[in-house]
Specification:
By secondary structure, this protein is mostly helical. The protein has three domains: about 120 residues, Rossmann fold (3-Layer(aba) Sandwich), CATH 3.40.50; about 120 residues, Serine Threonine Protein Phosphatase 5, Tetratricopeptide repeat; about 160 residues, DNA Cyclobutane Dipyrimidine Photolyase, subunit A, domain 3 (Orthogonal Bundle), CATH 1.10.579.10. Helices cover about 45% and strands about 5% of the residues. The protein is built from 19 helices and five strands. Strands 3-2-1-4-5 form a five-stranded parallel sheet, sandwiched between helices. α3 runs parallel beside α4, α13 crosses α14 and α15 packs antiparallel against α16. It is globular and about 70 Å long. The termini are far apart.
Amino acid sequence: MSSRDATSIVWLRDDLRLADNPALRTGVDRGGPLVIVVIRDEESDGVRPLGGASRWWWHHSLAALETAIRDRGGALTLRTGPAEAVLTDLVAETGAEAVFWNRRYGPSRAIDARLKERLRDEGVEVASFAANLLHEPWEVRNGSGGPYRVFTPFWRAASALPVRELVPEPRELPPTRRIPSEALDDWDLLPTRPDWADGLRAAWSPGERGAHARMNAFARERLADYHRRDEPAVPATSGLSPHLRFGEISPVQLWHRVHDGDLDPAARRNVAKFSSELGWREFNHAILFENPRLATVNYRDGWDAFPWRTESRGGADLEAWRRGRTGVPLVDAGMRELWTTGCLHNRVRMVVASFLVKNLLIDWRVGERWFWDTLVDADEANNPGNWQWVAGTGADAAPYFRVFNPETQAKRFDPDAEYLRRWVPEYGTAEYPEPIVDLTASRREALDAYETVKKG
């Protein structure tokens, strides 16, 4: 059998798109029948099961992908179980001679390494591709050949590297092997009792088509105001983070859209800053690549002795934070936005995180887990990386003495209280609760505690 008659398998993970998908393009170009598979693996070591909001997004993203593949003459196969076993069985079931995937960078990459070795030993062609970052983590190195620990020199080095060209989207797919597939509805990814996703449905359109629509709208309408991205009431941010998280659009597509596409002069002035935000995503993934336990272990081990309040000790304070009932308006507005839409303005993310870890002295891992469950854009790099940055335990971390004052932040970035009143309508009335903590006193207590650990 020639290679052009042999079956190829394309394994999709955080790359749920047809355009700029090197693994898919390689499978198509190889010729022969194609199996496109997504595996729901919640069992393997190194795999972190999705939170509730992300499961909602994943369902709709997969539904959109199924439709797009079917429209091009193909089919999407869904399977459940440990990825190594499922994919090995799928190779035997289909007689596939080649398997392709796009790389991932967290602890689950160990699964990929074992699979690659095992399948190659069995005579199967296996190839993985750079698809979901601008640059591979091992490509951005300091003068000693090691990883960067500080963002600015990291991004300076990364910016000097060329960004790859886009991979053409297949307009048609080769004949697809019709094999048994699980039904997406049977995966029970959507909330039912209760159905809490009304706000998510109103805010988002998961899938590749929705990602491209949002990217183009951002380039045309919002990028010109991107210098106001810190103002939560102003529609100046891209809103692309969940689309990037599930790979419905690639950072390379975004890069070329803002660097090569038609932009008005006001938008072009903001390209460098937007690019640096993509760079922060790159930095967090590079940190995760070197530190697979980023979600559970302090990047700076000097903080291991810090006397955090745990989830069990957080008590009423933690619950008030989660529900947006702290009596601190900007914190409450942010946490209610999160609960309703599955997302949170970046400036406010920093404020609510700082409040939890520095004013309430609750372990950053408690907040990270809550965000993991409630954010539609929670990923293995940005979520823990950003929490550690705020806590002072991470790479290029905010200095331990930086404590975001929610009142000062609100006056500076939401001076007319437009954002506050949108999410906290009872703000300024007798119905609004008193603050659960004194901001000045709790800041002083945090600094005292941080100083003790620093000296120790």
